[in-house]
């Protein structure tokens, strides 16, 4: 796939998914290279449409525990997705995840999406701990988690069933005292509605 020119990462924002986003998301959700470490995909069109529909519906659940967005840039439009899921409300624990169109791999886009998710989790949702996992073979995702300041905690064994069998997960986390917001703090780069 052809890579695009470097983007101004400070212009990436997260907005709620809209049903019309599914064709753009499907561009990478249908690719083997994009989902080789995931329990989903390569998606059919119906599966990608269903993912977007479920994400939209999750915004109406009360209490809300899933915050799913598309990452957009004024030059490229939709270039990725990001989620924060509240895993335990009373203990203020959440988990982030992200996926980026391969045209934007290696440009800092995933790191920027993850940073925005951390900011939302710590500042808007007042979480105490945010986790993220990745397949041990996915060195690019592990590098993203390290780059954004998450601490590697170890391997969780046989946590996810993917097409090639059971896989382990590298566990990373950040706790509130470690959160170092971007300087200067800018207005939120996400919208909820």
Give an overview in words.
By secondary structure, this protein is of the alpha+beta class. It has helices at residues 22-29, 32-35, 45-58, 109-124, 139-147; strands at residues 13-16, 66-73, 77-88, 93-100, 129-134, 151-162, 165-175. A hairpin with a 2-residue loop joins strand 6 and strand 7 (165-175). 31% of the residues are buried. The model has no long low-confidence stretch (mean pLDDT 92). InterPro entries: Acyl_CoA_acyltransferase, GNAT_dom, Ribosomal_N-acetyltransferase. This is GNAT family protein.
- What would the average pLDDT be, to the nearest integer? 92
* Largest sheet properties: 7 strands, mixed
Distance between the termini: 33 Å
Shape: globular
Low-confidence stretches: none
InterPro entries: Acyl_CoA_acyltransferase, GNAT_dom, Ribosomal_N-acetyltransferase
Organism: Kribbella koreensis
Protein name: GNAT family protein
List keywords for this structure.
single chain; 193 residues; Aminopeptidase; 5 helices; GNAT family protein; Acyl_CoA_acyltransferase; Ribosomal_N-acetyltransferase; GNAT_dom
Entry summary:
With 193 residues, this protein is of the alpha+beta class. The protein has helices spanning 22-29, 32-35, 45-58, 109-124, 139-147, and strands at 13-16, 66-73, 77-88, 93-100, 129-134, 151-162, 165-175. Residues 12-173 form the N-acetyltransferase domain.
Question: How are the SSEs ordered, and which strands pair?
Answer:
Elements: E1 13-16, H1 22-29, H2 32-35, H3 45-58, E2 66-73, E3 77-88, E4 93-100, H4 109-124, E5 129-134, H5 139-147, E6 151-162, E7 165-175
Parallel strand pairs: 4-5
Antiparallel strand pairs: 1-2, 2-3, 3-4, 5-7, 6-7
